[in-house]
Specification:
- This protein is of the alpha+beta class and about 230 residues long.
- The chain has a single domain, classed as Fumarylacetoacetate hydrolase, domain 2 (Alpha-Beta Complex), CATH 3.90.850.10.
C-alpha cells in the first residue's frame, strides 16, 4: 500500500575543495576534556575517565549560518571544539589503530543551553535538551586527513564580536583523539558518518541576540555563526 511519507534529508557537512558532502550519522560529544574547562565547571579533571553525550545529526548548521536564539534559555553558551569525522567504523578499536578510522577534521561549536543543563544536573536528569536542541552544532567544512594529517596541537580560539573569549591549544586535551575513539568504541560500534566533538578549552560564556561568534583552529580555518 502506497504511503505518503515525506522524504527526510540526510544531514551532512561540506568538504573543503569538493562539491561532495560528508554524510552525518551520529554526533558524540566528550565532556570536560580540557583541564582548565573542567575546573571552571567545578570539577576535578584528574579523577574520571572520559564521558559522552550526544546531539542529533540534524542539529548541524554550516559555516556562516544565522541561527535564532533558542527557546527556553536565558544563558546560551559557546564552546569551541575540534570535530573528528569517522570514515571507517568498528568496535573495541585499539588506541594504536584509532587514527586509521578517521576521515577528517573540522571546526565546531557545541552550543549549550547552560541554565537548562544546570537544572538537569541538579535534578539528576539527562542533558539531552540542553545540548541537542535545534541548530546546536555549527560545524565548518570538513578537511580530509589527506590534506591536514592528524592535528594533535595548535591554537583553538573563539571570539564573540571580535572579543577573544577562548584561547587554548589542542595539546591540552586530557584525552587525545586516539584515546577518545578507543574508549567510545567500547560502548558503541562506531560507523562511517559519525562525528566526535572533542571538548572545549576554558573560557566558555554567554551569547546574546545579535552576537557574531567565530571559532578558529590552527590549520583548519574558521567557523562563524550569527545569533539572530
Amino acid at each position: 500500500m502506497a504511503q505518503d511519507i515525506p522524504k527526510v534529508e540526510q544531514p551532512s557537512v561540506a568538504i573543503v575543495g569538493s562539491d561532495e558532502r560528508f554524510p552525518v550519522r551520529r554526533i558524540y560529544c566528550v565532556g570536560r576534556n580540557y583541564a582548565a574547562h573542567a575546573r571552571e565547571m567545578g570539577k576535578d579533571p584528574d579523577r574520571e575517565p572520559p564521558f559522552f553525550f550526544s546531539k542529533p545529526g540534524d542539529t548541524v548548521v554550516p559555516d556562516g549560518a544565522t541561527i535564532p536564539y533558542p527557546p527556553q534559555t536565558e544563558n546560551l553558551h559557546f564552546e569551541a571544539e575540534l570535530v573528528v569525522a569517522i570514515g571507517t567504523g568498528g568496535r573495541d578499536i585499539a588506541e594504536s589503530d584509532a587514527l586509521g578510522h578517521v576521515w577528517g577534521y573540522a571546526v565546531g561549536n557545541d552550543l549549550t543551553r547552560r541554565d537548562m543543563q544546570a537544572v538537569a544536573k541538579d535534578m539528576g536528569r539527562p542533558w539531552d535538551l540542553a545540548k541537542g536542541f535545534d541548530r546546536s552544532a555549527p560545524i565548518a567544512a570538513m578537511h580530509p586527513v589527506s590534506g591536514v594529517g592528524h592535528p594533535d596541537k595548535g591554537a583553538i580560539k573563539l571570539w564573540v564580536n571580535d572579543d577573544l573569549k577562548q584561547d587554548g591549544d589542542l595539546s591540552e586535551m586530557i584525552w587525545p583523539v586516539p584515546a577518545i575513539i578507543a574508549f567510545l568504541s567500547q560502548s558503541v560500534e562506531l560507523a562511517p558518518g559519525d562525528l566526535i566533538m572533542t571538548g572545549t578549552p576554558a573560557g566558555v560564556g554567554k551569547l546574546a541576540s545579535g552576537d557574531v561568534c567565530r571559532v578558529e583552529i590552527e590549520g583548519l580555518g574558521s567557523l562563524t555563526t550569527t545569533i539572530a
